From TrEMBL:
The keyword DNA repair does not apply. One of its GO terms (cellular component) is plasma membrane. The chain crosses the membrane at residues 17-34, 54-74, 86-104, 110-131, 143-162, 174-194, 222-242, 254-276, 288-307, 313-333, 354-375, 381-400. Belongs to the major facilitator superfamily. Bcr/CmlA family. SUPFAM superfamilies: MFS general substrate transporter (SSF103473). The keyword Cell membrane applies. CDD domains: MFS_MdfA_MDR_like. This is DHA1 family bicyclomycin/chloramphenicol resistance-like MFS transporter. InterPro entries: Efflux_drug-R_Bcr/CmlA, MFS, MFS_dom, MFS_trans_sf, Sugar_transporter_CS. Its main location: membrane.
Length: 410
């Protein structure tokens, strides 16, 4: 007789595949909203006659919107269920995309990018909460890793799609495309997503107020430490995202289409990292995978700074260690999610929202630093990566303390 410990244990392989694809598509709305318009940064700079740093602030505006949106959507989904917040927030994304496509100035564009980020935030938060509602233990690791794999396709495809859109239209066409994608997300939420949070779990004792849910999370040393690790890893990756268009198109002379291909190759590192990490997680604890991946990250980032400062190996001297850094991020992301959510099924939406808010909020604040320092070389980007990874390593060993984390169940 098979004992069903978690609701997802009774799903067939085909049903699990449907969940992976649909939830992956929902989560991918966020990365698509960020990455699709990266190839258009130089044209935005020219159209609005503003500096590189100002254009990067429109990316920061999106991440701020992500952070605010996740702080709202996560607790809301714990209180009323998963479907309604997802549908409402995705509809906001559709309207904001239309506004961004018609923005007359960079200030108006920044405002609509905040709203776009808030709307897109729901996909990632609700998808993680849905998976936590259905699974636990090792199956949770597997599902989050598969979700991360599908989600990893978004940053690979988005710049390629964006660069191709720019062949036929201006940067405004990119936001029209995002509006259409948002409409598909709304339809998917209406027709494919079922409610996974039973009414009785929305008002359980001890978890009825937002303050109580936050108190539970902030009193968990492992959650706080892992959240900082995840935010710093994401901030290091985001320093690359915010800089890459200017660095590779203006400094190294690549076209928008060449940049899209290069970005796709780099983003394959995330997919490779996630898949290998998923297999390793069956044997080793997620905290030990994080210990290894963050160590590799800081070495790769330091290599970028060293080779670029010494003018060795040219573009290859940047791309090889950068790919290793990005792949190490792929190793890290699923393990951060597993460690953060494993002991917080009752407040999964709030926990997921805090993870996302820290990720995008800190990344949005940190990434423009590179633009204002200057993007004449790769060294500033690498230096920011070194600093963020160093903080992640300190948080892992001082707060999380890998030796004290218990093994996951089956």
């Amino acid at each position: 007789m098979t004992i069903v410990v978690h609701p997802g244990d009774s799903l067939t392989a085909r049903q699990r595949l449907v969940y992976v694809v649909v939830l992956g598509a929902l989560t991918a709305l966020g990365p698509a909203t960020i990455d699709l318009y990266l190839p258009s940064f130089p044209s935005l700079e020219a159209d609005f006659q503003v500096s590189t740093g100002v254009i990067q602030l429109t990316l920061t505006a999106t991440t701020i919107g992500f952070a605010l949106g996740q702080l709202l959507v996560g607790p809301w989904s714990d209180k009323v269920g998963r479907r309604t917040p997802l549908i409402v927030a995705s509809a906001v994304h559709v309207c904001a995309s239309l506004g961004a496509a018609t923005a007359p100035s960079v200030e108006v564009l920044g405002l609509f990018r905040v709203l776009q980020g808030m709307g897109a935030a729901a996909g990632g938060v609700v998808a993680m909460a849905l998976v936590r509602d259905l699974f636990g233990g090792r199956p949770l690791v597997k599902m989050l890793s598969r979700l991360a794999m599908v989600n990893g396709l978004a940053p690979i495809l988005a710049p390629v799609i964006g660069s191709q859109i720019l062949r036929f239209t201006s940067w405004r066409g990119i936001f029209v495309f995002l509006m259409a994608y948002g409409v598909l997300v709304v339809l998917a939420a209406v027709f494919f997503i079922v409610e996974t949070l039973p009414p009785e779990r929305r008002h359980e004792a001890g978890h009825t107020t937002l303050r109580q849910r936050y108190r539970v999370l902030f009193r968990d040393r492992v959650f706080v430490g892992v959240a900082i690790v995840g935010a710093m890893v994401f901030s290091g990756l985001f320093a690359y995202l915010a800089t890459s268009s200017f660095l590779f198109q203006q400094v190294y002379g690549l076209t928008a289409q060449q940049f899209g291909v290069l970005f796709a190759i780099n983003s394959l590192g995330v997919v490779v990292g996630v898949q290998v990490s998923s297999r390793l997680a069956q044997r080793y604890g997620p905290q030990w995978i994080l210990a290894c991946s963050t160590s590799v990250m800081i070495l790769a980032a330091a290599t970028i700074v060293a080779l670029d400062s010494a003018h060795l190996f040219g573009l290859a001297g940047v791309l090889v260690p950068l790919w290793i850094f990005i792949a190490s991020c792929g190793f890290s992301f699923p393990q951060v999610q597993v460690l953060a959510l494993a002991n917080h099924g009752k407040e999964a939406g709030t926990a997921a929202s805090l993870l996302g808010a820290l990720n995008f909020g800190l990344a949005g604040l940190i990434s423009p630093v590179v633009g204002f320092i200057g993007v004449s070389t790769a060294a500033p980007m690498g230096a920011v990566m070194v600093c963020t990874t160093a903080i992640a390593i300190l948080s892992l060993w001082i707060l999380v303390r890998p030796r004290t984390v218990p093994e996951l169940g089956h």
